Automatic annotation (TrEMBL):
Belongs to the cation transport ATPase (P-type) (TC 3.A.3) family. Type IIA subfamily. Keywords: ATP-binding, Cell membrane, Membrane, Nucleotide-binding, Translocase, Transmembrane, Transmembrane helix. NCBIfam families: ATPase_P-type. SMART domains: Cation_ATPase_N. It is found in: Cell membrane. Residues 4-78 form the Cation-transporting P-type ATPase N-terminal domain. This is Cation-transporting P-type ATPase. It is a multi-pass membrane protein. It comes from the Bacteria. The chain crosses the membrane at residues 58-76, 82-101, 246-265, 277-296, 820-838, 858-881, 887-908. It comes from Photobacterium pectinilyticum.
Length: 917
């Protein structure tokens, strides 16, 4: 178990690690520890080589069968068939290889985040060394702008704050202390005397003693989880694997039947092999992997226009299967911009602040009173204080506004700008100047500045924790006048003089509580006039006898469009769960506002509570939890796994290093494109280019539409395969093995890839169904063939194969050549499929779907028919495919007869409402 260094005092830390803050480690101690602990770097597991990746693609059952078919075709003299099948194999293998090759990333970005150099004390001297040479016990100098090179226990802190957002999810820099902490069950975000590898120092200086290096650091634990977290197959990949295995079994079964019949009739082995090749080619939709990839690519292109970039194509369809979205709070559900939402002035008035983000457009709207903010002396004076006692910068570039500095201070700067106050103007032309600054520290819990005003008088501008400011307050400003805050005078047991500010104190405390209940981060502002003598006094003495001006309630508010997006998910049967490193109260308030918490039954669970649960209990409560707060990377991974064990299809959003293991484990990892670290982006399957939760909902819609269109394509493709297999089997069974096969392998390839493949590809852009976002999500184990689709494929395929056999049988009995009869069977199957495609694009019947709503499909059908007629009537086509030109009457008869399976069965379904036909 990892030692809880945050509970240790500085002295015990130094003692346990055998070091000294004055001298550091000796050269001998460093050498021993380097041998014991190894290099301070993250270890990367070796991935698959290029050859291993390439070889892996041939494990696909479809590719295996086609490979056998190509080999047999070659050795039996069917060279054209062998080459055609070989080309199909190469195309499918290269596409699959490229997708997997691009996905093999991860640790490189994590390693890039580490600091290259560090300053440590050894043998009593400060020296710069490569970060990889650091060992536990080293004394590390910490300065503003540094990236910490290891996990350290802070032993000296001089106004030190560290940005740990990528590791903990906290949007605010964390103020650090050297004091030991008593609670041994707190998460990383609350370990305020620790510094962690890869985090950045935003202000101040300090010293830290290295307690962990390399894979033993918190980032190392995350790296280890990433290396050992199995990337789950997407539901579509699982479904495609099932289809491949099913088709393989069917193909082998059909070939076995043919072999038995052939041997029974005494057929030569060469003929049996020839028939087996035709059947295996007929049973497999050779274009399936390629067309699926193309359909997903088209979907990916559409999604990019909606600000969602898919890294792995298979993940696109997964979105449509999603049953639960585990979403980070900061920047995804919220605006990632701290803003003043509410204000309270010392006169007892409450204000709301409108306007979005850093824009100066907005106003202070009074609640239950009509005073304008500029007519409120205490509010305007409070904003002057908030602006001057502030290290953030308000930047404007044309119409664009931004803030540089601490997010909370930035919120005050923006609020002041909405009231017409800007620090730069106040200091340059407004007559104000800063004389001295007393920055915030954790012991005083306030910050202040000495200001010289336009009239030449000095005053102290103070901001800080509301309870501390009240403790140091001597009065409240009410309508521009100071009301004294002093204890009631008591003589004996009788109060002889009341505190004139008693009601103001009660109102002030009530406002603090009200802001806290709304999960607002609260700051108070005050002012004190100074004499010349005061200018030389210590800040601890100056920050007393303060006149309170007001309070500001600050938070990172929800994105305006998120509520509608969460509601849309809810209507579609998709639960949204907030998983955040923030405090439970803040997270719960946001969750209620945007509709994630919808009833009293929705639970809020903290990381410390998760630590007390085993995996079984976590799985049990998951369906009722709306918010997981104050969580660690391990917690996030456990939550995703628990959702998956409950048979949920889980999407996980995140932007930090701490999110990477969960992003990798989730069925679909969604990384933030703007605020996301490179580690998160490498671990995710989808990148939100706008960091917006509503974009996920758009992607869910796209995913569902893609799944619908893939089912339409699979229906069309497999119906053709059933038709091809059945026409060969019918001829074999009813006409005997000595008769020529109705279709050659090359004819079958043409139907699968061109005459049927092109129109089927156009199904990938079919308009979405009307009930798309009203359906419940599909179950993880739901097959492509659910809702009687498999039955419909078999029935339609058998009828088409039967029509093709009848055409072939008629031609042979009419004394026409074998090539002519094969051409009749070929043409019949081609036109059967072209008719059938209009029925494939509907989950009801073709009579309920306007054929002109997909013009791409109409064009593809026309092109397919033209090319197939070219195979029949051109010299090149006749030479390659052994076809003969059909007479006009035969062609028209075939075209009309080919419509019967679709029109009759669709009509029967329309009248009887029987779903399986």
């Amino acid at each position: 178990m990892t030692k809880k260094w945050f509970t240790e005092t500085v002295a015990s830390t130094v003692s346990n690690l055998g070091t000294s803050t004055e001298n550091g480690l000796s050269s001998e101690e460093v050498k021993q520890r380097q041998e014991q602990f190894g290099a301070n770097e993250l270890q990367e597991q070796a991935g698959k080589t290029v050859l291993e990746l390439l070889a892996h693609q041939f494990m696909n059952p479809l590719i295996f069968i086609l490979g056998v078919g190509a080999i047999v075709s070659f050795f039996t003299g069917h060279l054209i068939d062998a080459v055609a099948i070989g080309v199909i194999i190469v195309i499918n293998v290269l596409i699959a290889f490229w997708q997997e090759f691009k996905a093999q990333k991860g640790m490189e970005a994590l390693r890039d985040m580490a600091a290259p150099m560090a300053q440590v004390r050894r043998n009593g001297e400060w020296m710069d060394i490569p970060a990889r040479d650091i060992v536990p016990g080293d004394v590390l100098k910490i300065s503003t702008g540094d990236i910490l090179a290891a996990d350290v226990r802070i032993v000296e802190s001089n106004r030190l704050s560290i940005d740990e957002a990528a590791l903990t999810g906290e949007s605010e820099p964390v103020d650090k202390t050297a004091d030991a902490l008593e609670d041994g069950h707190i998460g990383l975000g609350d370990q305020i005397n620790m510094g962690f590898m890869t985090t950045m120092v935003t202000s101040g200086t300090g010293l830290g003693i290295v307690v962990s290096t390399g894979m033993q650091t918190e980032v190392g634990h995350i790296a280890d989880m990433m290396a050992n977290t199995e990337e789950t197959k997407t539901p579509m990949q699982e479904r495609m694997d099932t289809i491949a295995k099913t088709l393989m079994a069917v193909a082998l079964g059909v070939v076995a039947v043919v072999c038995v019949i052939g041997l029974y009739h005494g057929m030569p082995w060469l003929e049996i092999l020839n028939t087996g090749i035709s059947l295996s080619v007929a049973a497999i939709p050779e274009g399936l992997p390629t067309v699926v990839t193309i359909v997903l690519t088209m979907g990916s292109t559409r999604m990019v226009k909606s600000n969602a970039l898919a890294k792995q194509l298979a993940a696109i369809e997964t979105l449509g299967s999603t049953t639960v979205i585990c979403s980070d709070k900061t920047g995804t559900l919220t605006q990632n911009q701290m803003q003043v939402m509410k204000a309270y002035d010392a006169s007892g008035r409450n204000w709301e602040v409108s306007g979005k983000g850093f824009s100066p457009q907005g106003e202070f709207k009074p609640l239950s009173h009509s005073t304008d903010v500029k007519d409120s002396p205490e509010m305007m004076q409070g904003l002057v204080v908030a602006t001057l006692c502030n290290d953030a910068e308000y930047l404007q570039d044309g119409d664009k506004s931004s803030v540089r500095g601490n997010p909370t201070e930035g919120a005050l700067i923006v609020a002041a700008a909405k009231a017409g106050l800007q620090q730069a103007e106040m200091l340059s032309t407004g007559g104000y100047s800063i004389v001295d600054k007393f920055p915030f520290d954790s012991s005083r819990k306030m910050a202040s500045v000495i200001v010289k005003g336009p009239e030449g008088k000095h005053f102290l501008a103070i901001k800080g924790a509301p309870d501390v400011v009240l403790r140091n307050a001597s009065g409240f400003m009410v309508n521009g006048e100071v009301v004294a805050n002093q204890p009631a005078a008591v003589e004996g047991n009788l109060a002889v003089a009341a505190n004139p500010a008693e009601e103001l104190v009660a109102s002030y405390e009530a406002a603090i509580q009200d802001f806290a209940h709304q999960a607002l981060r609260t700051l108070a502002v005050g002012i004190r006039e100074l004499s010349e003598a005061d200018l030389k006094r210590d800040p601890a003495e100056l920050e007393k006898d303060v006149t309170i001006l007001g309070l500001y309630g600050i938070m990172d508010p929800p994105r305006p469009e998120v509520r509608a997006a969460v509601d849309s998910c809810y209507d579609a049967g998709v639960r949204t769960v907030m998983i955040t490193g923030d405090h439970a109260l803040t997270a719960a308030a946001i969750a209620r506002e945007i509709g994630i918490i919808r009833s009293e039954e929705d639970l809020v669970v903290t990381g410390s509570q998760l630590d007390d649960m085993d995996d079984e209990e976590l799985r049990r409560i998951c369906p009722n939890v709306a918010v997981f707060a104050r969580v660690t990377p391990e917690h996030k991974l456990r939550i995703v796994q628990a959702q998956q064990h409950n048979n949920e299809v889980a999407a996980m959003t995140g932007d930090g290093v701490n999110d990477a293991p969960a992003l990798r484990r989730a069925d679909i990892g969604v990384a933030m494109g703007i605020t996301g670290t490179s580690v998160a982006k490498d671990s995710g399957d989808l990148i939100l280019l706008d960091d917006n939760f509503s974009t996920i909902v758009k992607a869910v819609r796209q995913g569902r539409q893609i799944f619908d269109n893939l089912r339409k394509f699979i229906r069309q493709a497999l119906t053709a395969n059933v038709g091809e297999v059945s026409v060969i089997l019918f001829a074999f069974l009813f006409m005997g093995p000595e008769v020529a096969l109705p279709l050659t392998p090359l004819m079958i390839l043409w139907i699968n890839l061109v005459s049927d493949g092109l129109p089927a590809l156009a199904l990938g852009v079919d308009p979405e169904e009307k009930d798309l976002m009203e359906r419940k999500p599909r179950k993880r184990n739901e097959s492509f063939f659910s809702d009687h689709l498999g039955t419909r494929i078999v029935i339609r395929g058998l009828t088409q194969g039967g029509m093709s056999f009848l055409a072939f049988n008629w031609a042979m009995n009419a004394g026409l050549s074998a090539n002519y009869a094969q051409t009749m069977a070929f043409a019949m199957l081609v036109f059967c499929q072209l008719w059938h495609i209009f029925d494939s694009r509907s989950f009801t019947t073709l009579f309920r779907k306007n054929p002109f709503t997909n013009k791409s499909l109409l064009g593809a059908v026309a092109v397919s028919a033209t090319l197939s007629l070219g195979v029949i009537y051109t010299g090149v086509g006749q030479f390659i495919f052994s076809t003969e030109g059909l007479t006009a009457s035969h062609l028209i008869t075939v075209f009309l007869a080919a419509s019967l399976p679709t029109l009759v069965l669709s009509g029967l379904k329309e009248v009887t409402k029987i779903k399986f036909v």
